[in-house]
Specification:
This protein is an alpha/beta fold and about 450 residues long. It contains eleven helices and nine strands. Belongs to the peptidase M4 family.
């Protein structure tokens, strides 16, 4: 299964995200955005050589308190790995895969899908293990994993299944492309890789293991350096797995298989939509496993499982309070959540994981005002806006906001809630997003 490969170009003052792998997306911010002032994204273009990248990183390390290149290499987190992956991915042949138009007639009808999952374990494998699938052990749909010692494989297999069940039951969607495609994932990527990403060229999601605390502690109990003792295995969270899989859904649904440009507002919107469906999947599963669960029980934080013990209540992003998901002191600095939550703070050079806080907050406000579970009316509105054939890869916040408004009006008429459209408008206005033709 291959998805289209994106090679976005820099336009105007917009720059591609440094989290770009094969034109697509990592779950978490790059290191340089986690401390100090809210930085704008520097240009990280596909035509940069590894030497240029190393020089750029060294220059950054000498100002603003960023991690030195030596420290990055010591903990196995240099940009070189990203660019090695990029060079490999660019050599792959890919094709455009378009999504089957989803059924929006009646989301309440029973909908049964046949899952197809393939999980690969890349532990102790080199980077080219992507190219040679026989070089890494794998498990397919129906294999017995009950006694499997590979914890990450079991977690990934089960979490993918939860996401597919959620999309089928709530939105009547058949896998990522709505055609029942196989879902491929790799776990234990690289050595202590503190991130996860979706690759359109590889047609799979990939998860790193983070930095465990063992062997890296100082006497004052603070982590030795950034992420060591903070970030754990990214495959442990249903929400993180759902987030990455949603990037595949976005990729093959929007703009006839082109997805959303991964820069500026479209890139931030891509991250936000993935976050929205991640939190809904997490909340839905909480309700499925505990009928007494209420929406008020949710803290609207995603990525909590990736934060290792010792940092209670923290996660990687908050839809309720963007910018307040985490604040963690390390030996050298304080790592902070730098997300913004109002359009007044936005500019086109912000890293997409930072500016995605704006539409994230809009969804939270909409779900809160509409009421019920997030995946009911609010989730249906966001999903129908996503599959709107009028969206293209350059979609702005205001364009998507208007799509959600129009879908809310339709659903409001069908459900006897004439104020539903106004509720969605108010949610977007709270974060400073306004569509030109909306009435004041």
């Amino acid at each position: 299964m291959a998805f289209t490969k994106i090679n976005p170009q820099v336009q105007g003052n917009q720059t591609e995200s440094p989290n770009l792998i094969d034109g697509h997306v990592c779950f978490f911010l790059p290191l340089q955005y986690l401390s100090g002032e809210r930085a704008t994204a520097r240009s990280t273009r596909f035509d940069l050589s590894l030497e240029d990248t190393e020089n750029e990183n060294n220059a950054d390390a000498q100002k603003g308190g960023d991690i030195s290149e030596e420290d990055k290499m010591e903990i196995g987190m240099t940009y070189m790995k990203v660019f090695q992956t990029r060079d490999f991915l660019e050599n792959l042949e890919t094709e455009i895969i378009k999504a089957k138009p989803p059924n929006t007639q009646n989301f309440k009808d029973p909908f049964v899908i046949t899952k197809q999952r393939l999980i690969r374990d890349l532990q102790f494998c080199g980077i080219n293990s992507f190219e040679d699938s026989d070089s890494s052990p794998s498990w397919s749909e129906g294999d017995d994993i009950s006694d499997l010692n590979a914890k990450s494989v079991k977690l990934c297999y089960n979490n993918i299944g939860i996401f597919l069940d959620f999309m089928a039951e709530i939105f009547q969607r058949d896998s990522l492309d709505n055609r029942g495609c196989k879902v491929i994932a790799s776990v234990n990527y690289e050595f202590n890789y503190p991130n996860a990403f979706y690759s359109s060229a590889l047609g799979q999601v990939v998860f790193g293991t983070g930095f465990p605390m063992t062997g890296w502690m100082e006497s004052d109990t603070k982590p030795v350096d950034d992420f060591i003792g903070i970030i754990g295995d990214f495959v442990t969270g249903i929400d993180i797995v759902a987030h990455e899989l949603m990037h595949a859904v976005i990729q093959c649904t929007v703009d006839q298989g082109n997805g959303l440009d991964y820069k500026g507002e479209p890139g931030a919107l891509s991250e936000s939509i993935a976050d929205v469906f991640a939190i809904m999947t997490q909340q839905w599963y909480s309700f499925k496993t505990d009928p007494n669960w209420k929406l008020e029980d949710s803290d609207w934080i995603i990525g909590k499982t990736a934060i290792l013990p010792g940092h209670p209540g923290m996660g990687l992003r908050s839809l309720k309070e963007p910018g307040k998901a985490f604040e963690i002191a390390t030996r050298t600095k304080v790592l902070k959540d730098l997300q913004i939550q109002h359009y007044d703070e936005y500019n086109d050079n912000l890293e997409v994981h930072i500016s995605s806080g704006i539409p994230n907050k809009a969804f939270y406000e909409a779900a809160k005002e509409i009421g019920g579970f997030s995946w009911e009316k609010a989730g249906q509105i966001w999903y129908r806006a996503l599959i709107d054939t009028g969206l293209d890869k350059t979609c702005l916040f205001s364009n998507f906001a208007n799509s959600t408004f129009k879908e809310a009006v339709k659903i409001g008429k069908a459900t006897g809630d004439p104020d539903l459209g106004k509720k969605v408008q108010r949610a977007w206005r709270k974060v400073g997003v306004q569509y030109d033709t909306w009435d004041d």
